[in-house]
Amino acid sequence: MADFAVSIRKVLKHEGCAWDENGNLIETGYCNNPDDPGGETIYGITHDEAVENGWVGPISEMPLSFATEIYRVKYWIPLWGEHIDDQGIADEVFDTAVNCGLKTSVIFLQRALNVLNERQKLWPDVAVDGLMGGTTSLTLNTAIVSRPYMRLCILRAIDSLQCCRYIVLAESNPKFETFMPGWLRARCGVEGIIEP
């Protein structure tokens, strides 16, 4: 089963956080970029998102524990993260949800599962509804072990759809071009995968 503590570390790294060699947080990823429609952020959490979740005060003073709980409740739990058998896939689905939206991330996963099932010979299609639940979770875990290469295929499919989404965003709003290099460098690319 996937571990939230592992997945959140990847997300926070992509959101600009950094730690020293002793594990102490040395960079919060705080920014207030005029091109970012989310405005002021820390740990990747926008000011509005922090307030919606009960934060009072300057966002620059929000502790990491508060941000981590937002990520757990808003993304990890609805993704059924603890029910995903593969840590790398859980990391990818979670990170994609944080950056592209929960529903979008699950749709990417569901689309990938439906085109990789050999016309439903390996597992039945799942509804492409953007809702992670028992059926999508079970289907994912079945798919992961169905073929030695399936994990890699699922990861690459999700990643490819994510890259396409970024390109569409930047084409529709030139302000997003500011973020394209970072998105493509940090958020796209399957790390630590050895092809069978």
Model description:
There is one protein chain. By secondary structure, the chain is mostly helical. The chain has helices spanning 4-14, 47-52, 64-76, 87-100, 102-115, 134-146, 150-172, 180-187; strands spanning 17-19, 25-28, 41-42, 45-46. It has a two-stranded antiparallel sheet with strand order 1-2. A two-stranded antiparallel ribbon has the order 3-4. The two termini are 22 Å apart. 28% of the residues are buried.
Provide the fold topology.
Blueprint: H1 4-14, E1 17-19, E2 25-28, E3 41-42, E4 45-46, H2 47-52, H3 64-76, H4 87-100, H5 102-115, H6 134-146, H7 150-172, H8 180-187
Antiparallel strand pairs: 1-2, 3-4
Helix pairs in contact: 1-4, 4-5, 4-7, 5-7, 7-8
**Helix fraction by DSSP (H/I, runs of at least 4):** 40-55%
- Describe the global form: globular
Distance between the termini: 22 Å
Report strand %. 5-15%
Q: Which structural class should the secondary elements be placed in?
A: mainly alpha
Q: What oligomeric state is this?
A: single chain
Mean of the pLDDT scores? 91
Briefly, what is this?
52% of the residues lie in helices and 6% in strands. The chain is mainly alpha-helical and 196 residues long. The strands form 2 sheets. A two-stranded antiparallel sheet has the order 1-2. It has a two-stranded antiparallel ribbon with strand order 3-4.
Which characteristics define this entry?
single chain; about 200 residues; mainly alpha; two-stranded antiparallel ribbon; 8 helices; 4 strands
